[in-house]
Amino acid sequence: MDRQEEEDDDAALREASGGASFPGGWLRRLSRELHWSFVLAVVAVYGACQGVGDAVGGVAAGYYWKDVQRVQPSAAQFYQGFVSAPWVVKPIWGLLTDVVPVAGYRRRPYFLLAGVIGASSMLTLSLHRKLGIMPAILALTAQSAGAAVADVTVDALVAQNSITHQPLAADLQSLCGFSSSVGALLGFSISGLLVHSMGSQGALGLLSIPSALVFLAGVLLKERRVTDFDYKQVHRKFYKAIQSMGATLKCAEVWRPCVYMYVSLSLSLDIQAGMFYWYTDPIVGPGFSEEFIGLVYSVGSIGSLLGVLLYQISLKDYPFRGVLFWGQVLSSLAGMLDLIMVTRLNTRIGIPDYVFAVIDNSVSQMVGRLKWLPLLVLCSKLCPPGIEGTFYALLMSIQNAGLLMSGWWGGLMLHLLNVTRTEFSNLWVAVLIRNLSRLLPLMLLFLVPQSDQNSMLLPAEMLQDNESTEARKGGQDTAEFSVLVADDSSCHALNVAVEDERIKVVDAGTGTVELIPLMNELQDHGS
Fold first, then answer.
1. Domains within the chain, CATH numbers bracketed
2. pLDDT for 265-314, tens place per residue?
3. What angle do CA 370, 381, 92 make, to 5 degrees?
């Protein structure tokens, strides 16, 4: 297909998008242009696994640690950090799905693997009534690993289709965001009812259903089969990718914001387990029911959506430093709502606990989204051409590592302040320390660039991207790749001639053969 034909196809897609602004319209268009199995995969991962699954799993896991395992809130905080560990190593999953095809397929086997791991682990957890703490941690961690693998795999598909069908790129992001938001609202709405009627283990067992949908998406996904793949070159490609990411991290324009992101997240101490135990305590706390806990979180998810809209409408064009500064300040101030509730000042001024809890969670979720979105934009600006996907996954891993440390530091603080299952006299101190700790990252705000969110942050030399498809000419055996390998004193991209890394793929439907680059771009979706 020549350039004129490609432009005609793009124009036709843009014209078609004009009359399909409603979800049903662009869902049908995406199914027609990209195949319905791709849409099913996005809905299964973002809507079912991450949306409904994370919502139901978050509420059910809180009750599981409290009522079934009967651990202290500090221990529950620590265990939940272990469960989230697979998200810290997302670049590994990304490299595997990009570099190592299985039985000739690069996406389908990883969907199948993620589905099997997630479903089997949750069924094990729900069917064994006297499961120990360590087996329970392993089961929840396995389910988290399955979700992380599915997330990375579907992000790779979204990135690939965004490149090959550029007029549909915005629709693809809308599909991901819409599926996740609707799934979260649905999940939080039914989470309390499920825990109340089935117990926390029964609700966790239902998480095997989203994993089964991921498995089904892997079975039905339409994917071209890779042929003539040389597995002996896998280690070399892994080494090249790691070397490229290491060279990029040596740039001051990259490592300085990374340090700020990690520190700002790790110092925002997470004491959610302590608050959850207090919320559900009928003697000292408000004694909220399972149904009301689900309602609080579902309304809070609406606050998160309002935060997205507010950022999109008013804040996306402001400089990074200004937005991040006010994000940290507002986060600290919003945390004072927890302090008011824990000290019961709200009841003294005539505001019932159930009303104030809804307000508190909604405001906190909205401010949290306003704080999170600029960091996502900053990460997208730090990704050099050629390794955008894998490096973005690395940046997300840095953020996830900061969140993990935040949970562990918060658990340690709850332990030192003797906040237990029944003792909450020092919980207000933990809340106050958490709120003040959110202001500490402001001292490192100088590490963040002063530019606005629409500016390029990387050096001009690093932005040079010589794609293999551009360098490929009439049967030549070598191609120019922009490989980010530098010495200790430089972060400039070096153009290195390497052997042709294209591989043959065979379309199962047409039998045609196409040459594509072996390393595909991968795009992380936020989590």
1. 32-222 (1.20.1250.20), 241-455 (1.20.1250.20)
2. 998 899 999 999 999 999 988 999 888 998 888 888 888 878 877 887 77
3. 95
Residues 6+ apart with CB under 8 A from 439: 328, 329, 332
Any residues with CB less than 8 A from the CB of 444 and at least 6 apart, and which? 259, 260, 263, 264
The model's pTM:
0.72
Which helix (H) or strand (E) is 494 found in, with range?
A: strand 494-499
**Residue 246's CB: how many other CB atoms inside 10 A?**
12
Helix-helix angle 133-164:169-205, to 10 degrees = 160
Among residues 92, 117, 409, 403, the alpha carbon closest in space to that of 261 is found at 403
Alpha helices in 64-207 (DSSP H): 73-83, 90-99, 108-127, 133-164, 169-205
Q: Alpha-carbon distance 425 to 282, whole Å?
A: 15
Query: What CA–CA distance (Å, rounded) separates 196 from 297?
Result: 15
> What six digits make up the tokens of 240?
């090249």
Contacts of 185 (CB under 8 A, 6+ apart): 51, 298, 301, 302
Written as six digits, the tokens of 363 are: 């405001």
